[in-house]
Fold each of these.
Amino acid sequence: MIRSRPSSDLLLIAGAAALLAAACADTESSTSSGGTTVTPQACVPKDGPLPHEHLTDYCFFQGDLKDLAPAEGVYPYDVAAALWSDHAAKQRMIVLPKGGKITFDPGEKWQFPLGTILVKTFSFYDDFRDLSTPHHILETRLLILGDEGWTGHVYRWNDAQTEATLLVAGERVDVSYIDETGESYAEEYIVPNTNQCKSCHERDDKNTFLGPFTHQMNRPVVRDGKEVNQLDDMAQRGMFDGDLPAVTGLPAFPDPFGDGPLDDRARAYLHANCSHCHRPGGGGGSSGLVLLQWENGTQKNGICKEPAAAGAGTGGHSYDIVPGHPEDSILIYRVSSTDPQIKMPELPNRIVDKKGVALLTEWISAMDPNTCE
């Protein structure tokens, strides 16, 4: 069940120039002596400044829109450690401009060509235990690289799942579903306003991308029925402007909920869910808490670190992480809350990530006990 209510906050959006070489299927009916013939027609991306008014103007998808089948030239990708978004399922895609190539970096400093569009679509299944059950697509977010840098835009899908329209003001949507464990939920999902995109994507006063970088992308995926390394697959499709080093020698995040080493899994989770703010230049940079996966300074990681600011967010606890004692750690207190004055991440979560809390609790419990006194 999906019900929506409007929210406020307007932002004037500046368009960014982009070239898109993609094809999607449309249909045209013509009548002949033999009856009605359905002829597929090429989808031509709309001209003019970006963002467009409708999602179909970009021609990202082919066939029935709600099937989310990427058009030719649109690359679907997966990340190793996903950002929690209140149970929403996500589809991610990269759209490069015609002739555009990515300059590879073994870390997170990939350079995308002007006109790149990163696409992420959010949906809910009626029952996440059975992905053949109906799903409801709520929104698609675009990150467009133009002359002024990356800009974020949000498209809200209609109930018929036939179109999505540019949304500036944001919206609150009531959703109900059953999660992977069989628990039923009825929640208010927040479709962000365009200004809220900056809460995660802004760094040093400029927007940036979060997901597609080496640690997240160096992982197995299935392409054409075969398991391949995603970076190798991208290279074979000509998406980079040079040869890649052997992927076996490149960094890679584990699945946070897989069977890798506990410390590696917890750090991958924290990076995906927290480091966009908790890093130099991020919104939480002034706190001194750095949750980048490659940051190994114990106090920067929060171990026996006193919070930069006291208040309700501490829960009366004295340190971000107390080794061996998750019950005394501010980190666990905050990620276990949905109170707007306490919870982390600040936006947009309305539902606690129980698996994430369990992972971080296990991680802190496994540390050598230390009272930090």
Note: The helical segments are 198-201, 214-217, 230-236, 262-274, 330-335, 354-365.
Amino acid sequence: MAFEAAYGWGWLVELLEDYGFDPHLVHPLRCKAIASARLKNDKVDAAILAQLLRADLLPEAWIAPPAVRQLRALLRHRASLVRLGTQLRNRIHAVAADHGYDRTGSYWTGPGRGWLAELPLPPVSREIVTDSLAFPGALAVTIERLDAEVRARAKADLRVKVLTALPGAGEFTALVMLAEIGDITRFPSARKLASWAGLTPTVRGSDLTVRHGHIPGQGSAWLRWVLNQAAQTAGRSPEFSATYAAIAKRRGTKIATIAIARKLLTRAYHLLAAAQAGQAPATTTATSFTGTAGEAPADGGGSPSPGHARSSGMSRPPGRARSSD
């Protein structure tokens, strides 16, 4: 049974499997027969999906197992709480700045909170500061509990130890990579994985003219986020500093960061593939593999998809993320 990827599709997969059906999750952006139809309604879409499924022409997205989906939910929940705490702190900074106040030290220590309490603020501004200060403490307790669960999961998965050999990758980054990528064997090459992740440039070619554009923005936004966070640290490491500096000088720092993120993902692919094949992680190092950041994408991408940065990957997540994979 085929259905388009949409908001809240997980329960439908479980229901179909309970009744013995084989669910097929359709990639909506790649289903051209539906996207280009003049007459579009649920009845017409269902008929087209049935025809494509019968002809084995259905552009499918990978349905992650329940354990992988639960791991994604845990990591995204933790990242969302960190983002919420950062938003509340930024709001307090904005209120103080709006009235011309600032201090060089922290706002959140004992002296900093005392300084905030003594500021002569208007009633509404004082209310905003008081309310915003009430939540970070409660969030910190919850985040600490989630961190303990994340560490326990990281300790139980040997692949995390393999991925943390990458420059700039901590346990959280490694777990997000594992959760978003899923089964590494579904990608025949590192180039396919990079294309699915949306880290390869778009290509516009006609006759002898070929133009490479920006990354398409498809794939997992959460995977690109943690790779970009890791790339900012890896770009200062001895392994990548020269490459990062050369690309940044020629194309700018943003493109250089994406290039390093692509290289990290290429190395991660080979590390995971070697671990999947049964090779000992101790004999496989992150420096054993290289990737080319400027390669053109080998396919059209994958399934549709998200404070201060820290090398462990536990910084503020993307504002929006889609995942139908």
Note: The first strand starts at residue 2 and ends at 4.
